[in-house]
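lol forgot to send this yesterday, sorry. struct tokens for the thing we talked abt
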């Protein structure tokens, strides 16, 4: 049966996904040279990298847990086909396409470039502040179980029978120095507080500006006691230098003499929450007496919004990949997708 109907005709003109695709297309247009250099000009046709990146955006927007589930839905969801620029009768690509092209995308740092291009779109619209920021970190559970956390120099005996054999850790001291996950060796055992259980995790970090609560930098590192402060200083150091001093707000975990001194060396006044529990704060009344400190602490709490969205809607509460590099690429893509949603919302009111 012949038909002139296309996916363009089926998506309502006022559907929010149209505004989202317009921003995504602008971002991918900035990456055209990098994406073109990834593939040869001859040989069999392949799935365009633009479609893989758009698919990653859709997976975050629609809470699709796996690439296989996305490809299954792509076969019958006409909105997805429209977003990827596919015909109605075009079959979805195989889920293994993601796996076969993932290393190529990682080698060319496409996730980093995608996130940076999204930030450029926000900057062109004057949505970003260049003077006031907040920084925070969170733990993201790795795709590895407690049973895979074994001694590094332990005996390598035969695997236990069954898929889920019982293992007892009672009385055994397990630390990151002596043990390592056999499923994801880069994951580290960490916990959010003394009242929570330790889990194999990675540490996600965000740098947020204060004008519209947009993410200006993101990173994912190994989880450790100093990962938050180290990552924060790295992200602050990547910001362009300015003559005027800027501010960076943070919670009590950043109230250390080292972080405060290093932030000031980078040209940032640290508006951290004073930690006076059994110790002296690294900042004093010369910082806290200003109204800007209280304002920074109030706006700082908005950094939890992108963290919450990435963990729930984007499905990052438990990471889906093994290894820091792959999970970091997902984290940057999810952060970029969150920024796109904020840009679209701001476009609608300006």
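and heres what i got for the seq, position by position
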């Amino acid at each position: 049966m012949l038909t002139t109907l296309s996916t363009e005709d089926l998506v309502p003109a006022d559907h929010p996904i149209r505004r989202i695709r317009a921003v995504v297309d602008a971002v991918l247009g900035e990456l055209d040279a990098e994406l073109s250099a990834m593939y040869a000009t001859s040989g069999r046709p392949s799935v365009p990298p633009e479609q893989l990146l758009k698919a990653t955006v859709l997976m975050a927007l629609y809470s699709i847990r796996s690439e296989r589930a996305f490809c299954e839905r792509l076969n019958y969801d006409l909105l997805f086909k429209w977003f990827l620029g596919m015909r109605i009768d075009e079959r979805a690509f195989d889920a293994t396409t993601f796996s076969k092209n993932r290393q190529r995308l990682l080698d060319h740092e496409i996730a980093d470039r995608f996130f940076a291009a999204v930030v450029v779109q926000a900057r062109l619209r004057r949505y970003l502040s260049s003077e006031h920021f907040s920084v925070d970190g969170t733990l993201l559970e790795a795709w590895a179980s407690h049973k895979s956390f074994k001694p590094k120099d332990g005996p390598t005996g035969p695997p236990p029978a069954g898929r889920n054999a019982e293992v007892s850790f009672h009385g055994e001291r397990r630390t990151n120095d002596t043990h390592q996950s056999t499923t994801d060796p880069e994951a580290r055992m960490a916990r959010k507080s003394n009242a929570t259980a330790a889990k194999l995790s990675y540490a996600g970090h965000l740098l947020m500006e204060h004008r519209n609560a947009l993410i200006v930098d993101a990173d994912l590192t190994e989880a450790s006691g100093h990962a938050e402060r180290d990552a924060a200083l790295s992200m602050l150091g990547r910001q362009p230098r300015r003559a005027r001093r800027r501010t960076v707000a943070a919670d009590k975990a950043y109230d250390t003499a080292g972080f405060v001194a290093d932030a000031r060396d980078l040209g940032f006044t640290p508006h951290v929450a004073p930690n006076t529990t059994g110790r002296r704060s690294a900042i004093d009344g010369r910082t806290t007496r200003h109204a800007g400190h209280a304002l920074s602490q109030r706006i700082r709490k908005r950094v939890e919004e992108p963290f919450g969205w990435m963990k729930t809607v984007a499905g990052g509460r438990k990471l889906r990949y093994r290894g820091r590099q792959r999970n970091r690429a997902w984290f940057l893509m999810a952060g970029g997708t969150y920024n796109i949603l904020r840009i679209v919302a701001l476009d609608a009111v300006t």
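Strands lie at 132-141, 149-151, 179-181, 188-190, 199-209, 215-222, 246-250, 268-272. anyway ping me if u want another try
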